[in-house]
Write a structure and sequence with these properties.
Bound molecules: glutamine
Radius of gyration: 21 Å
CATH superfamily of one domain: Amidase signature (AS) domain
CATH topology of one domain: Amidase signature (AS) enzymes
Strand content: 5-15%
Helix content: 25-40%
Largest sheet: 11 strands, mixed
Structural class: alpha/beta
Distance between the termini: 5 Å
Shape: globular
CATH architecture of one domain: Alpha-Beta Complex
Strand order of the largest sheet: 2-4-3-5-7-6-11-12-10-8-9
Order of helices and strands: EHHEHEHEHEHEEHEHEHHHHEHHEEHE
Number of strands: 13
Number of helices: 15
Length: 481
């Protein structure tokens, strides 16, 4: 294990001239060169000369006293379901290979406007459907902490790039835990924002009523910095909230004597005993610092996983209908229309994606709709109401993952085992509330994470709590190797 500085500290040091952004860029490129053949965190990489050139420009501007952005010289990796005009966007699928977007996602624009340097696009389960990053058309990503194991998914490439030092910060997406699960598996952090706080313009949709682009980093303060830069109203996303001028980074420190933490039993039980013991020991620690820790029960949560998958598959079936091979990737059309489309989909989509489309179509179809899709949306509504009720009184402590990072192949034989990995994370997506994942320990060299949930737009409280936890555990800015 090694320790590195946060992006926010790097920017400060670049500006003060005590650290050289060009040297830093070389360091990051060196880590990519050394680790990539074993890890496969990236689907595409920016040309090293361009990365260095961007760092040189930051350096020149600092030296000449010009204004530089809040992310000046910070290297960022971007999940490959977020559109960029300068690198291909594949969503981990053959269907979109090669697709070059004519525009940048709003989040990418906002990061680059603050002088962040994009180093590449990261690997993911096809269309973000998965929990291990094994279901990518571009091969699996491995966990830098143990190369025989998965980094979690679907934003596994982003998390792995952070864990080996191949980027300072990253962008993931989180439909049902895809940014938080990989964070828990790689000793990194991620914050799924309140639904609507971050623009989804330029995010390739999977389950659009559930998902948010989520900052990923090696420290909680870096998440706050990223969120402040990329969050806030965007006219290009009709679900975007009319808020602006975020200042999560400067959230006031937490008065632990006034902190109330609720352990929702259904979000704490059932994990590997090793994970459970790490979970309870950090809560005891908080208790001894003066926080009040209470246990509550929300029984409807036992229905969260089936409700999530029913809704996610239904939305996927609708969202993925646009892929007919004519426009994406632009191949044009020849032969018999129906045959052409069938052939494109047969070749373009992987097994898991096809399965989800079929199940989604089934859940939405006449005669089954009430029993599946409508029923799931009702469960969702009750879960949301319950979570809002609890978060009005306290911050929820929850497990991030039920098991330690599995070995490659271990969870693929049985789809239910794969889906069960999201049992604790899907709740924040169903409820639309913010959730933070961060490391709390290691077991035999494997990272263990925790999750905190707060009420809508209470990202600042999560950041304050997360920062306090980092002080208690000393776990921030850690990288493998
Ligand atoms: N593993 C979950 C799924 O496959 C979540 C994925 C995600 O958050 N994108 O649906």
């Amino acid at each position: 294990m090694r320790r590195v500085r946060g992006a926010w500290e790097l920017v400060r040091d670049f500006r003060e001239g005590v650290e050289d952004p060009v040297e830093h860029a070389y360091k990051v490129l060196g880590a990519i060169r050394a680790w990539e053949p074993r890890v496969n965190a990236f689907i595409s990489l920016e040309a090293p000369e361009l990365v260095v050139e961007a760092a040189e420009s930051v350096k020149r501007r600092i030296e000449s006293g010009e204004r530089v952005g809040r992310l000046a010289g910070v290297t960022v990796s971007v999940k490959d379901n977020i559109c960029t005009s300068f690198l291909p966007t594949t969503a981990g699928s053959r269907m979109l290979d090669p697709y070059i977007s004519p525009f940048n996602a709003t989040v990418v624009e906002r990061l680059m406007a603050e002088d962040a340097i994009v180093v590449g696009k990261t690997n993911l389960d096809e269309f973000a459907m998965g929990s291990t990053t094994e279901l990518s058309a571009f091969g699996p990503t491995r966990n830098p902490w143990d190369l025989s194991r998965v980094p979690g998914g679907s934003s596994g490439g982003s998390a792995a790039s952070l864990a080996y030092g191949g980027s300072d910060v990253s962008l993931g997406s989180d439909t049902g835990g895809s940014a938080r699960l990989p964070a828990a598996y790689t000793a990194t952090t991620s914050l799924k924002p309140t639904y609507g706080l971050v623009s989804r313009y330029g995010l390739i949709p999977y389950g659009n009523s559930l998902e948010q682009i989520s900052p990923m980093a090696r420290s909680v303060r870096d998440l706050a910095l990223l969120l402040d830069v990329m969050g806030g109203w965007d006219p290009m996303d009709s679900t975007s909230l009319k808020v602006g001028g975020l200042d999560t980074f400067n959230s006031p420190p937490l008065d632990v004597g006034k902190l109330k933490v609720c352990v929702v039993r259904e979000m704490a039980e059932g994990a590997d005993p090793i994970i459970e013991s790490a979970f309870w020991s950090i809560l005891e620690r908080l208790g001894s610092e003066g926080a009040e820790v209470v246990e509550v029960s929300v029984p409807i949560i036992s229905k969260a996983l089936p409700a999530y998958y029913t809704i996610a598959f239904s939305e996927a079936a609708s969202n993925l209908a646009r892929y007919d091979g004519v426009l994406y990737p632009a191949k044009g059309f020849s032969g018999v229309w129906e045959e052409f489309i069938a052939e494109s989909r047969m070749r373009g989509f992987g097994r898991e994606v096809k399965k989800r489309i079929l199940m989604g179509v089934y859940a939405l179809s006449e005669g089954y709709r009430d029993e599946y899709y409508i029923a799931a949306t009702k469960v969702r509504r009750v879960i949301r109401d319950e979570i809002l009720r609890v978060t009005r009184k306290c911050i929820i402590a929850a497990q991030a993952a039920p098991i330690l990072p599995p070995r490659l192949g271990e969870r693929l034989d049985d789809p239910l085992k794969l889906y069960a990995m999201d049992v604790y994370t899907v709740i924040a997506n169903l409820a639309g509330v913010p959730a933070l994942a961060q490391p709390i320990g290691f077991h035999s060299g494997l990272p263990i994470g925790i999750q905190w949930l707060a009420g809508p737009l209470e990202e600042g409280r999560l950041v304050s709590l997360g920062t306090l936890i980092e002080e208690l555990t000393g776990l921030s800015g850690v990288i493998a190797g």
